[in-house]
Design goal:
The structure is a homodimer of 177-residue chains.
Chain A lengths: L6 E8 L3 E3 L20 H5 L2 E7 H9 L10 E5 L10 E4 L3 H10 L4 E4 L3 H9 L5 E7 L1 E2 L4 E2 L8 E10 L5 E7 L1
Amino acid sequence: MSTQRKVILYIAMSLDGYIATPDNGLEFLSLVEEKDQDYSYKDFVNTVDTVIVGRKSYDKVLSMGLEYPHTDKDLYIITRTPRPTVGSTTFYTGDLKELVSDLKRNVGKDIYVDGGAEIANEMLSENLIDEFYISVIPILLGNGISLFNNSRPQVRLKLISTKSYNKGLVQLHYLKA
Amino acid sequence: MSTQRKVILYIAMSLDGYIATPDNGLEFLSLVEEKDQDYSYKDFVNTVDTVIVGRKSYDKVLSMGLEYPHTDKDLYIITRTPRPTVGSTTFYTGDLKELVSDLKRNVGKDIYVDGGAEIANEMLSENLIDEFYISVIPILLGNGISLFNNSRPQVRLKLISTKSYNKGLVQLHYLKA
């Protein structure tokens, strides 16, 4: 039995729905940092073999002097500026909907949407997300970059599970209904 | 031992943070309607003796031919248009911050903020909410009246509990940290 690969948004937001402060700051995530606690991230990452990420989020990681993780996977950086493919890293300038249907035509593990807000919203606007892991951080940021912008289609969800952790993070897991 | 009365926001929102559709529709709440399941609402209501609600939300209930509930409690309708007090129902045109500090100066049960978005945001902007019960409905509305507007102060929260229910509602309970 083969089931179709799913497109999964795995992301953290404040209770008021921001994934970053207005200046793209992620300091609030440190509120839930805990030794030996990865909130099942590693387990999740093992279920995917393809990662889609926006160019800005990708460059932000590099600008911190880090290597972008997931280079062992098929990596699609969504950008408006063509760049040559490097190994399994593709700089994709085409249509997101087409990318997803191409990927789904192939057999493989699931597909991880790693943000940022622009890519998440474009995927949501096109109703391309099949599964959601939303980690709610115990803070109201008051301001910032919203995970959910206006003018997306209505999507019914099925709650799969909810887990709460020591530091007050709540992980909500939904499937598109 | 007497502890100060708390101001509690008890409200439902879609996963994308809307408390109503753009036309103030609440039809999505029917997704989680279930016989004999009130999501602990009655228990909660028994812990309060005072209700604060915006004039529009109040009038919306009346326009549906219903009596506004909680007439057994001290009811403050927040409005710009003065109206005479009726029994325990006060039409309050003053400053919200003052109202809350007046109420807190008196001994009593907790204080329930029943919405709508305008009042919730004014209370949040003034950092007047001490406790939160947010019921997350399993849907992305895509558009609507946001529970959380921009330009509020940052508020750290302490997760008290999370409960998930049959129909996919998740109730998040926080205290201001």
